[in-house]
Hints:
Distance between the termini: 51 Å
Number of helices: 12
Largest sheet: 6 strands, mixed
CATH superfamily of the largest domain: SGNH hydrolase
Number of strands: 6
CATH architecture of the largest domain: 3-Layer(aba) Sandwich
Strand order of the largest sheet: 1-3-2-4-5-6
Radius of gyration: 18 Å
Strand content: 5-15%
Structural class: alpha/beta
Amino acid sequence: MTGSVNRTRTATAAVVLAGLGVTAAGGGRELLRRQAAIARRRIGKPLGEDAIDADKLWKKTYGDPLRLVLLGDSIAAGLGAERRKDTLGARLARGLAKELHRSVDLRTAAVVGSESSALAGQLDGLPASYRPDVAVIVVGGNDVTHRVPVSESVAHLEAAIARLRLLGTAVVVGTCPDLGALRDVPQPLRSLGSRMSRQLAVAQQAAAIRSGAHAVVLARVVGPFFITNPDEMFSLDRFHPSALGYKHTARALLPTVVRVLAEKS
């Protein structure tokens, strides 16, 4: 088991290294790409590409359902959770139900592997008549590893927020997590990933506020838990949160979600 986990960590590190595209000579970059491709073929994706489906009416006996939609990448989708109740969406739905004593109709539009550019398609995929009360967006990690310009990422985020607000939806953005928490990525590449993800998070926070949404800086409020307790906070692939990781992430987001709903009403 230990050997398998170590190989998985190596594969994940290789993928991140190649994605960051370090500023080395062309031959060095090509070597990293080849190594990442070999690692992906040998190891595969231990968590697969599909998160557990947690969409349902949570705490239905409470009545007066509240509509919650999750948009973004694999974190928003809950990849890494082994039970539906441990996904980020389910954690938020259960927390909201407890706080507001209302049932919560959860819909997850987030897709594993998404960049910010995918937000428009995720919104397009929602039923035309659907009007969520609140949307939670968590996106950015793939923008960093794929080296998407910050200005481009932010433009897609702002466009998604604008569309949601036109629907009368309150929006909470969980900014890009700190990739410096990925301990299996060696230095100096880990520092590079950390710097790039933090730059994106700052830009996302400013864009959210500018667009009338609210932002939760995940690197600040939940990132330290991932740095100090990686074995507990990360799932098998050492990249996505575990059940405990999602619990802390939902706990960090929930107060802001409750507040925006109170302001909306």
